User: Fold this.
Amino acid sequence: MGDWHPILAAVEGPTGVWRLIDPQGREYGRVEIRRIMHGTDTRYKAVWRGEVLGWATTLREACERVHRAYLQAHGPVPFAGYPDLGGLTH
Assistant:
């Protein structure tokens, strides 16, 4: 089937915005194109859950950043400590 890449999850629209869509059809992040330096350079803003992850020089790199955040959200979380069971009575 070929190599899959996060850019394949990107759906363009509105113009200049790519929404990354999960298998259930929900948006899980977005990439927005921006012109900088008096319109001579292009950057891509990678956004995950409303937070800017950073800026990239290619659409591919920006999609990878958003997808990496998506995958990390599905992995193990840091240990939050043991629950306080001191109030239990038997």
Q: What stands out?
A: The mean pLDDT is 85. The chain has one domain: 6-72. Helices lie at 59-72.
